[in-house]
């Protein structure tokens, strides 16, 4: 007997990334779309009074501050997924080689677009990550991106061997990233 309810279970790191731990929700008004080709299901439902913690005009900022990078996988393992970060953007949020390189990744939705928000933190925590400087003269900032790819919904593309183009903008003291080819920013 069906109750008409759907239970969504996220991997632990995805639930943590989207801050869905110990979160319960129910929707009276919602719809489910089933893709005939892939069998994937999309649940669409309103969340009353929810506001994004990130307040920005993503499209305008991306046009005026076009930091670009990629997410890549080195080998077949998810833990080998890295995201390059724009050096200028990293500096603008206060991160330099030799100082604290810890950031706290979180996720939000801005204008229907999933974004990752990297906030500088000064203490190690279970959810913080370290930016590593690599490449020639240790000038290329990078971060482990397994959690980021899941949060942005692009892990399947990496499994097919593709790299993910990213755009980054600085919003206050945070570095905000999103997948470049999901929006048209007039580049």
What does this structure look like?
It is a single chain. The chain has 187 residues and is of the alpha+beta class. The chain contains 5 helices and 11 strands. The strands form 2 sheets. The protein has a 9-stranded antiparallel beta sheet with strand order 7-5-6-11-10-3-4-9-8, sandwiched between helices. Strands 1-2 form a two-stranded antiparallel sheet. The protein has a domain at 58-181. The radius of gyration is 18 Å and the shape is globular. Helix content is 17%, strand content 32%.
Class from helix and strand fractions: alpha+beta
Major β-sheet strand ordering: 7-5-6-11-10-3-4-9-8
Number of strands: 11
Helix content: 10-25%
Listing every helix as H and every strand as E from the N terminus to the C terminus, the arrangement reads HEEHEEHEEEEEHHEE
Largest beta-sheet details: 9 strands, antiparallel
Radius of gyration: 18 Å
Detail the poorly predicted runs.
Answer: 1-6, 182-187
Overall residue-averaged pLDDT value: 74
Mass-distribution shape: globular
| Strand composition percent | 25-35%
Q: What count of helical segments does DSSP give? A: 5
- End-to-end separation: 52 Å
């Amino acid at each position: 007997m069906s109750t008409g309810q759907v239970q969504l279970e996220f991997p632990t790191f995805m639930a943590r990334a989207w801050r869905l731990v110990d979160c319960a929700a129910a929707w009276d008004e919602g719809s489910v779309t089933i893709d005939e080709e892939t069998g994937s299901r999309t649940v669409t439902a309103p969340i009353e009074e929810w506001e994004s913690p990130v307040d920005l005009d993503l499209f305008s900022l991306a046009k005026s501050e076009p930091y670009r990078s990629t997410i890549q996988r080195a080998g077949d393992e998810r833990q080998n997924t890295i995201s390059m970060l724009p050096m200028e953007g990293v500096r603008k949020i206060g991160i330099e080689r030799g100082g604290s390189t810890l950031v706290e990744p979180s996720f939000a939705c801005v204008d229907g677009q999933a974004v990752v928000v990297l906030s500088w933190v000064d203490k190690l925590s279970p959810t913080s990550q370290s930016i590593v400087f690599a490449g020639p003269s240790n000038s290329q900032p990078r971060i482990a991106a397994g959690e980021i790819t899941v949060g942005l919904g692009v892990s399947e593309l990496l499994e097919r061997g593709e790299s993910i183009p990213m755009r980054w903008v600085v919003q206050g003291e945070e570095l905000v990233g999103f997948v470049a080819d999901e929006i048209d920013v007039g580049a």
